[in-house]
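Q: What does the predicted 3D structure of VSTM5 protein look like?
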Amino acid sequence: LMRPLQGCRGRGVVVGTVTLCLAAGWALQTPGGVSLVVPQPNINATVAQNILLSVEYSCRGVATIEWKHVSSWGTTSIVEWRSGNYVNISTVYKDRVTTFENGSIQLRNVGMRDAGYYFVTVMEEHGTNAYGTIIVNVYEIIYEDLHFVAVLFAFLAAVSAILICFMWLCNKSLHLFQKKTTHKLTASTTEEIELETIEC
């Protein structure tokens, strides 16, 4: 009774091993599988800057790459292309986007509306997909505020210079007035002394 059980068990191990080898061989022969790496998932930019939305994908077959932008203004398709074939850039981004073979895109002259989430999808021809997300923050350049501060500083400096000149003129006028008054007082005192001398 023991021998048949051992035989069945041995056959089961052989069948399992053969099945596993066949499955592994089938998996290795079947093209498919796509991987996507996003090295910089957060990007901070200022208005009018160019930014690179960098990704790196790999797959066995031909891939289709698609980028979308999602923000409080809605969802916009940016670009879609198939490696080695066509490139379809949205009219909104026509003059602002450059595509790269590794799946990355460059966005030129960003504005405040470009802030948000950028979703990239890599679709492999055998049905495997990979997804990535990049968050872009766009900040306004504070030149306007600095310009206002500079103008205000220049205005205050000019007002201060005018006040200093005015105080200097007032001081000179006061000295001249005091000299004239002292001269008049001296002259009138001299006249009084002369009159007293005459009277005497």
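A (community wiki): The structure tokens above were generated from the sequence. Confidence is low (pLDDT under 50) at residues 1-31. The longest helix spans residues 143-199.
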